[in-house]
Each structure stands twice: as C-alpha cells, then as structure tokens.
Amino acid sequence: KHLDFAYYQPAFTTSLSLQYIVAKKLIIDFAPTFKTGVKAIYMGEKKQLDPIVDINLNAQYIYSNQLSFFLKLNNLAFQRYEQYYNYPSQRFMGMIGASFSF
C-alpha cells in the first residue's frame, strides 16, 4: 500500500547548539530545537501534531581525564508535546550523574 507521506517525520526542523567552555573544566551546552509539520495516523485517520519547541541545557564538569560529572535539563519550555500521537512528553526532565573511564 502506498503512503501519502512519511508519518512522524517533521516537515521542518531547526536546531541550534551553543557550547561554552569555562577554564577547560566546565562545559555548558544550550540546545533549542523546533519541529513542525509532523503528521500521524491513528485508527485510519490522518492527524496533524502540534509544533514542538524543545529547549535543553547541559553542563559537564571534567574533574580529571577519567572522572566527570554532568547535569542535563530537558524541555525547559515546560511544553507538553507529542512526538507520537497520544504519547505526551514530560513537561520537564532533569538528570544528574557521573562518568568514569577506565
């Protein structure tokens, strides 16, 4: 069967990543993304999903060549969007952790 278009693929996407390195130990990354024109199919009906604005902020502190710590803050716009029809995202998500290399 032939599909009219690729479902769940945005018609337009734009993103930006700004990275700032402070004294070779701290890396701060600001990454907004905008997506629009996402089409879905549900129970045989075509649906248009709302535009997505996703703003993320990440920080990483490099303690040594082997050890670093990170903080990730996602969806700073607190937008409840759907990447897939009827599957809403979290309004905000944060993660903190450490990375160790052998």
Describe the structure.
The chain is mainly beta and 102 residues long. The chain has one domain. It has strands spanning 12-15, 18-22, 26-36, 39-42, 45-48, 52-62, 67-74, 82-84, 87-88, 93-100. Strands 1, 2, 3, 6, 7 and 10 form a six-stranded antiparallel sheet that branches. Strands 4-5 form a two-stranded antiparallel sheet. A two-stranded antiparallel ribbon has the order 8-9. The termini are far apart.
**Order of H and E elements:** EEEEEEEEEE
Uncertain spans = none
How many separate domains?
A: 1
Instruction: Estimate percent helicity.
Output: under 10%
Number of strands: 10
Strand-residue fraction? over 45%
User: Average pLDDT value?
Assistant: 93
What descriptive keywords fit this protein?
single chain, 102 residues, mainly beta, two-stranded antiparallel ribbon
Question: Can you describe this structure in just a few lines?
Answer:
With 102 residues, the protein is mainly beta. The protein has one domain (12-100). It has strands at residues 12-15, 18-22, 26-36, 39-42, 45-48, 52-62, 67-74, 82-84, 87-88, 93-100.
Which helices and strands, and how do they pair?
Blueprint: E1 12-15, E2 18-22, E3 26-36, E4 39-42, E5 45-48, E6 52-62, E7 67-74, E8 82-84, E9 87-88, E10 93-100
Antiparallel strand pairs: 1-3, 2-3, 3-6, 4-5, 6-7, 7-10, 8-9
